[in-house]
Write a structure and sequence with these properties.
The protein is α+β, with helices and mostly antiparallel strands and about 450 residues long. The protein is about 35% helix and about 15% strand. Helix 1 packs across helix 4, helix 1 crosses helix 13 and helix 4 packs across helix 13.
Length: about 450
C-alpha cells in the first residue's frame, strides 16, 4: 500500500487499521534533546478518541500511546540527565487497539458484503480484492487519524520553540456557524477546552496522573499494564469526574461538548446535531485551523506552495474541501476587495485584511494562517440505503448496525490541527536551512 507517508524533511509514515493490533506513526526529523511523555501525547489523542461525548462513536478505545523508539533508554553517561530525551533517530509511537471484541467484528462480517454508501468500502474492495481489510474499514477508518494526532503533537512542540502556535476549532456544525473572533481569543478558548478535557478524562487521570503507566517503565511492562486496562475499560470509564454542563461552563468557561469559542453558537450546534441524529441521520460542518507566529517567506514555489501542502488535508477521511483565507468566497469579490492592502507602522508591515489567509504566491506573508476544512456527514447512518452485494452484484439495502459517529466534525478538529503542524514544521525545516545557506553565501 502506497500513500501512507508525508513530508520531505520532517517525515511521517503511518500504518495499522481499525481492528488490527493497533496503529503506528514513525517520525523522522525530530531534533535531539527534546522531551516528550506518553501522557502529553495522550492529552491530544483523547481530544479525537471515540466515546468521549454524545456526538462521538460509542467505541470505547482509550487510544493510549507507547513511545517505542527514538528516545534514550538511559542517561548516555552517568548523571547526564538525558534519559528519555529524543536522540535524533526515528521516533515511533504505537497505539494498540484495546476495545476490539468479537461482537463488533461479527457486526462488520455480517454487513461487509454490502458496501456502505459514502464510504470507501466498495472502492477499497475493488482495489485490494477479497483480502481488503474490511473489518472496521481498516486504514480507511477514521481511526487511522490517531496516528496523525500523535505525530502532529510532536510537531507542535517543535514549532512552539520557534514561537509558532497551531490551534483549531469548530467553525460550523449542522448549519450553525461560529461568528468571527480574533486569534488571541480563539487560542485562549481552545487551551481552556483542552484543559477541561484532560481533567475530566478518566484514562488521563487513572492511567497517567496516578502513574499507573510511566516513562520509566520498559515496553513489556507497559504492555502488561495495557493488557490489564483492556479488561478494565468500563471500570475506568466509570471513574470519570462528574460535572454538569453548568459547572463545566463556570469552572472552565467552555462548552462541555463543542470546541467552539462562541458558547451560544456551540450550544446551538449541539442541539442541531442531536435533532438530526434522532432521525438516524448524520451531519457535517467546518473546522478552522489557525497558525500564529509564522515568519514571512515560509514555503516554496509551484509544486510545494504552502497552501498547496495544506491542501493535502483532503487526505483526512471525511474532508471534502480545503480553503485558505477567503477561500471560495473570492469568486464573488473584486480585486480591490480581495487584495490585502498593507502599510508600515513603526517599521513593521501591517495588512489591512487577511483574505489570503496568510499565504501569497505559496509563501507565508507573516500574517496568521487561516485554513478551513469542509467535513462531510458520517456516511454510516441508521437509515435504509440502496447498495449492492459486492460479490454477486445483486441489489440490496443497508442500515448501520455498527458503532458510528453522529457527526465527525467534533472529532476532526484535533486531526486538522495536528496535520497542519506536520506541514508547517516540514516547511519550516526547509526554510531554516535555506535561510542559513543564504546567510553564508551573502556574508
Amino acid at each position: 500500500m502506497f500513500g501512507c507517508h508525508i513530508g520531505r524533511l520532517f517525515q511521517v509514515t503511518v500504518a495499522g487499521g481499525s481492528y488490527q493490533e493497533g496503529l503506528t506513526a514513525v517520525i523522522q526529523g525530530v531534533p535531539p534533546g527534546m522531551v516528550f511523555t506518553e501522557q502529553e501525547i495522550y492529552g491530544d489523542l483523547l481530544l479525537r478518541k471515540p466515546g468521549a461525548d454524545e456526538l462521538s462513536s460509542p467505541r470505547k478505545e482509550p487510544d493510549l500511546p507507547i513511545l517505542y523508539t527514538g528516545l534514550n533508554a538511559a542517561d548516555t553517561i552517568e548523571n547526564a540527565g538525558n534519559k528519555n530525551h529524543t536522540n535524533g533517530t526515528p521516533l515511533t509511537i504505537l497505539i494498540p487497539n484495546l476495545d476490539r471484541h468479537f461482537i463488533h467484528i461479527k457486526q462488520y462480517q455480517d454487513t461487509n458484503r454490502t458496501p456502505r454508501p459514502g464510504h470507501a468500502s466498495y472502492a477499497s474492495f475493488i482495489k485490494y480484492g477479497p483480502d481488503d481489510d474490511a473489518i472496521g474499514a481498516g486504514i480507511f477508518s477514521g481511526r487511522y487519524t490517531s496516528t496523525i494526532v500523535a505525530a502532529g503533537y510532536v510537531a507542535k512542540q517543535v514549532l512552539k520553540r520557534f514561537g509558532i502556535e497551531v490551534f483549531s476549532f469548530i467553525k460550523e456544525a449542522a448549519g450553525i456557524s461560529c461568528p468571527e473572533m480574533d486569534s488571541k481569543a480563539v487560542f485562549e478558548y481552545t487551551e481552556r477546552y483542552k484543559k477541561m478535557r484532560h481533567e475530566l478524562d478518566p484514562f488521563y487521570q487513572e492511567v497517567y496522573v496516578k502513574n499507573r503507566v510511566t516513562m520509566d517503565m520498559r515496553f513489556l511492562e507497559k504492555l502488561r499494564i495495557f493488557a490489564e486496562i483492556e479488561n478494565e475499560i468500563d471500570a475506568i470509564r466509570s471513574k470519570a469526574p462528574r460535572m454538569t454542563p453548568q459547572d463545566i461552563a463556570k469552572k472552565y468557561n467552555v462548552h462541555p461538548v463543542m470546541n467552539c469559542p462562541d458558547q451560544a453558537a456551540a450550544e446551538a450546534m449541539l442541539e442541531a446535531c442531536n435533532r438530526i441524529t434522532q432521525t438516524g441521520d448524520s451531519s457535517g460542518g467546518l473546522v478552522e485551523v489557525r497558525v500564529t507566529g509564522v515568519p514571512a517567506g515560509l514555503g516554496e514555489p509551484v509544486f510545494c506552495k504552502l497552501d498547496a501542502e495544506l491542501g493535502r488535508m483532503l487526505g483526512i477521511g471525511a474532508v471534502k474541501g480545503v480553503e485558505v483565507g477567503a477561500g471560495f468566497a473570492v469568486k464573488d469579490m473584486t480585486g480591490y476587495s480581495d487584495n490585502d492592502q498593507m502599510h508600515s507602522e513603526n517599521g513593521n508591515v501591517v495588512f489591512d485584511s487577511n483574505n489570503a489567509g496568510g499565504i501569497t504566491g505559496g509563501l507565508s506573508s507573516g500574517q496568521d494562517i487561516l485554513v478551513r476544512l469542509a467535513v462531510k456527514p458520517t456516511p454510516t447512518i441508521d437509515k435504509q440505503q440502496h447498495t449492492i452485494d459486492k460479490y454477486t452484484l445483486e441489489n440490496t439495502q443497508l442500515a448501520a448496525i455498527t458503532r458510528r459517529d453522529p457527526t465527525i466534525v467534533g472529532r476532526l478538529w484535533p486531526v486538522a490541527e495536528n496535520f497542519t503542524a506536520l506541514v508547517i514544521l516540514d516547511q519550516l525545516t526547509a526554510h531554516l536551512g535555506y535561510e542559513q545557506l543564504k546567510a553564508r553565501i551573502q556574508a
